[in-house]
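Appendix B. Chain record.
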Amino acid sequence: MGDFADTRVSLTGQGTLVAIAQTAGSGGACLANVAGLQVTVRIVAGLSVAAGNVLLILRRGSTYWAIATLGAAPVVAPSPPSPDTAPPSTGDPAPAPKPDITTGVLTCPPVATATYRDGSWRSDGDPVSGFDTYQGRYAGSSFGRMTGCAFYGTKPRSLSGATVTKATLKARRLSGGDFAARTPTLRLVSQSTRPSGAPTLNETTAGPSLAVNATTTSFTIPTAWAQAMVDGTRGGLAISIGSDTPYIHLAGRGSWSAAWTLTIYWRRG
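Structure tokens predicted for this chain:
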């Protein structure tokens, strides 16, 4: 509150004074500080008084009348906090921002398709790295069982660090064996390019069930298999069984350009 020493005047006689309203007007009166004393002040009709108003007072005898307001009392701004004062706590800390999430699709055609039989890679038809892929052995054949492979090179590893959410495969069955729908046995291969010797076969799952001349463009393989290719611990796919049947012939790159194309769906973040 301001210092009103300079407004103090004698309370004897009559005249105008300046006072500070201590209470709001009620019932035509309020309490006010007049020259350092708290007195009851009557309020003229039509004048609105709020606590803190500066009042112009007219004294008549022993009665003080508020005849006008001169504004609000001066406000003293609080002292700013010292620099070493910690700001007040506003509650729990804000959560860390969510990381950006990126998603995408990577198409991986094989760098080679080939069939391994009797200790070597077949080369009696299409080029050895574009050969059709076979599993089992044709009835009456004097040759051994076959393993057809697709190798994907380094392209899946370009997603290193990403999480695979889905992976699909394109396959087409060609003539060979009976015409009914048959299911090859898929294997996950260690090598990403065709080795000089036998491929290293690992995990097993059922492949697409196809009749002769049927095609699938979106057969889903295990997500973990594609993740292994992205991580670099596996590099290819194969069809292979430990018996002669079912004998199955799937197109390689030389017969169908989209053969064994792998599509990997991924995300980061």
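Further analysis of this model is presented in Appendix C.
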